Amino acid sequence: MASYDAIIIGAGHNGLCSALVLARAGFKVLVLEGGPIAGGAAKSGALTLPGFVHDYYASNIGLFLGSSLYRAFGKELHAAGFQFDVANQPYGSVFPGGRGLPVYMDPKATEESIRAFSLKDVSAWHALVGEFQQVAPYLFPLLQRPIPSWAFGRALFRMGRRLGMMRTQEVIAQLLQSPRQFVQARFESPEMQALLIPWGYHLDFGPDVSGGATFPYLESMQDYLHGMAITHGGIGRLIESMVTVFESLGGEMRLNTAVTEVMMRNGRAVGVRTQGGDEIAAKRAVVANVTPRRLFGGLVDAGALPASFFSKVQKFRYGPGTMMVHLALSGPVPWMAKSLARSLYVHIAPYVDDVAQADIQARSGFLPKSPLLVVGQQSSWDLSRAPQDRETLWIQVRSVPYQPQGDALHSIAVGGWDVIKEAYADRVLQKIGEYAPGFRSKILARTVFSPLDLERDNPNLVGGDSVSGSHHLDQFYLFRPFPGWSRYRTPIAGLWMVGASTWPGGGLNATSGYLAAQAILKNG
Ligand SMILES: Cc1cc2nc3c(=O)[nH]c(=O)nc-3n(C[C@H](O)[C@H](O)[C@H](O)COP(=O)(O)OP(=O)(O)OC[C@H]3O[C@@H](n4cnc5c(N)ncnc54)[C@H](O)[C@@H]3O)c2cc1C
Q: Fewer CB atoms < 10 Å away: N or C end of the chain?
C-alpha cells in the first residue's frame, strides 16, 4: 500500500494551504481531488467562447492577499506565475433613473458620488472610514487566529488596551448588529444604506440578521482603502501557482480521484480509500477539505463517531443557493449610470427592502421576483480575460432556493433546475437591462450554473450554498462548524477538518488550512 505522512482530501484552496505548509515542513504529502481541476470554488476557464476567461465562482482575492499563508508563500507563488490586478473603482450600486453610486479609492471622487445623494452622508462616510482605520489593525489579525485560543484572547486584549475597553465594546456591538441596523445608524439616504447591504449577502446575511454587519463593514471599507484585487488571467492561475509550489516541495496531487472512505484502525484515521478502490496510508494526518455533512456519516462511518458529535453534524445548516450567469459580450455594459462602467462589482438590488424580500422568498422556497445581483466586470481591469473590445460579465445571483416550490412572480412554471435555469437567467438579464438599455443585444454567448450545478461541481457547495454553511451567529466564530469543535480537530484521532465550513468561514481567506497544518505540526 502506498504511504504518505499526510493525505489531503480535496484541492480547494484550504486543502492546498495545508498541503503547502506540511510539505514545506518536510512531510510527504498527497492531495486527492475528486474533480478534474484543482481549486474547488476557485476555478477559471473559457466558459462561454474561446478567448473569454471567466472565474467560475470566486473572484475577489482580497482576503487571500491579507492571509498568513500569502505572507508565508507569496514570493514563491509569484515566482510560479501568480499576479493580480487591483481595481481602484472597486464597487458601486445602481438605482432607478440611471443613478449610480460608485466607490473609488480616490476620496474626492467617492465624496462626489455620495454628495449626489446626501451631504450629511459624506461626513458619515468619512467618520466610518476614520473609525475603521483605527480598528482594522486589531480586527483583521483576529480573523487569522484559532478560536478559542490564547492567541485570539491576546489579540482581543491588545485591542482593548490600545482602543480602550469602551471603544472595543462599541466595536463589538457594531459587528453584532444586523446589516440594516448598521447602515441605518450610519447613513440617512436610502442609497447609501443600500450601498453596503449587499456585502452581507455575499455570506447569507439578509438585512435583518444579527451579526450581519461585520462583512459589510470590513469589505466596504477595506475595498475603498485598498481597492479590490482579482487574479491576472483568471483565479485558476492562483491555484496553479499553489500547486506548482507544492509540487516543487515534493508534494503529489491526483485529480479525478474522489475519496470515498477515511480508513480507521483502533479509532485513528490511518489512510483513505478512493472511488477507484485504491487504499493509501497516511502515517500522521488525514486533512479533509470536506464540509461536515459530507465528511461525517459519508467518508467517516457515523457509527465511529460519538452520538453527541454526530447529532451536531446533522444539525449543521446550509444557507440559500446561488446561481451564476457568465456572459461573453461584444462590448461594455451600457449602464445608464455611466460612472459605473469600471466598477469591478456593481450591486443591483436596488434597495435594502429588495434584498430583504429576495432573501425571504428564496428561504421560503420561491424564485425571487427580483434577486440581488452582483455584476462583476473583471475584463475591464484584466484585459487578458477577453479579446480586444470584448468583455466578460460575471453575475452572481443571490439568492435562489435549492428546490424551488414556486415562483414569486408567477411567470416560471417550476420544475427542476435543469429545466428552469435558462428561464430564470432571462429574468436576471432583464433586470440588468432595466439599468442598461440595449445590454442584451451585446450578449455573444452565455453559460448558466444553477445551485444544483454548483453542488454537482463541488460537493461542499451543498444546496448551491456558495459558502458551505450558514454564517449566522450560532454557526460562526467559536461555534463553526459546531460548538466545541472550532479548532479543526475531530473526534477521530489523526483526522482534521478544514475549509469554508470551519472558522473563519467562507471566502478565499486561506486560514483554516493554514491553521490546521500549524496545529498538526505542533501537536499532530
Ligand atoms: C459563486 C461563488 C462566488 C464566490 N465569490 C467569492 C469571492 O469573490 N471572494 C471570496 O473570497 N470568496 C468567494 N466565494 C467563496 C469561496 O470561493 C469559498 O468559500 C472557498 O473557495 C472555499 O474554499 P475551501 O478551501 O473550503 O474548498 P472548496 O472550494 O469547497 O474546495 C473543496 C474541494 O474538495 C473537493 N472534494 C470534496 N470532497 C471530496 C472527496 N470526497 N474526494 C476528493 N475531493 C473532494 C471538491 O471537489 C473541491 O475541489 C465564492 C463562492 C462561490 C460559490
A: N
Distance between CA atoms of residues 262 and 271, nearest Å: 6
Q: Which of 399, 431, 457 marks a domain boundary? A: 457
pLDDT for the residue 524 = 61
Average pLDDT along the chain: 97
Of 12, 55, 511, 41, residue with least CA distance to 242: 12
* Residue 201 within a domain: yes
Do residues 278 and 358 both lie within one domain? no
pLDDT digits (tens, 9 = 90+) for 412-456: 999 999 999 999 999 999 999 999 999 999 999 999 999 999 999
Same domain? For 365 and 433 the reply is yes
Do 281 and 350 have their domain in common? no
CATH number for the domain harbouring residue 266? 3.50.50.60
Nearest atom in ligand 1 to the alpha carbon of residue 322 is 1
Give the closest residue (by CA) to ligand 1 atom 41.
Answer: 259
With a Cβ cut-off of 6 Å, ligand 1 is lined by 9-15, 32-35, 40-42, 57-60, 63, 258-259, 289-290, 299, 322, 324, 396, 454, 458-461, 466-468, 499-500, 506-508
Atom of ligand 1 nearest to the CA of 64: 11
Domain count within the chain? 3
Checking if the pLDDT of 292 tops 70, the result is yes
Whether residues 308 and 368 share a domain: the answer is no
Contacts with 158 (C-beta within 8 Å, 6 or more apart), sequence order: 138
Q: Using N-to-C axis directions, what is the helix angle for 119-142 and 107-115, rounded to 10°?
A: 130
Give the structural domain span for 389: 320-457
The residue whose CA has the least distance to atom 12 of ligand 1 is 507
* CB of 410 closer than 8 Å to CB of 391: no
181-240 pLDDT, tens digit per residue, is 999 999 999 999 999 999 999 999 999 999 999 999 999 999 999 999 999 999 999 999
Residue 134 has, within 13 A of its CA and on its CB side, a CA count of: 15
Is residue 20 in a domain? yes
Outline where 36-103 has alpha helix (H): 62-65, 68-79
- The residue with cell 435558462 is 422
Closest-CA residue, ligand 1 atom 22, reads: 500
Is there a single domain that holds both residue 217 and residue 110?
Answer: yes
**Residue 115 and residue 148 in one domain:** yes
Give, for ligand 1, the residue of 294, 508, 515 to mutate: max count of ligand atoms closer than 8 Å to Cβ.
508
Give 1's pLDDT tier (boundaries 50, 70, 90): confident
Distance from the alpha carbon of residue 375 to the mean position of ligand 1, in angstroms: 20
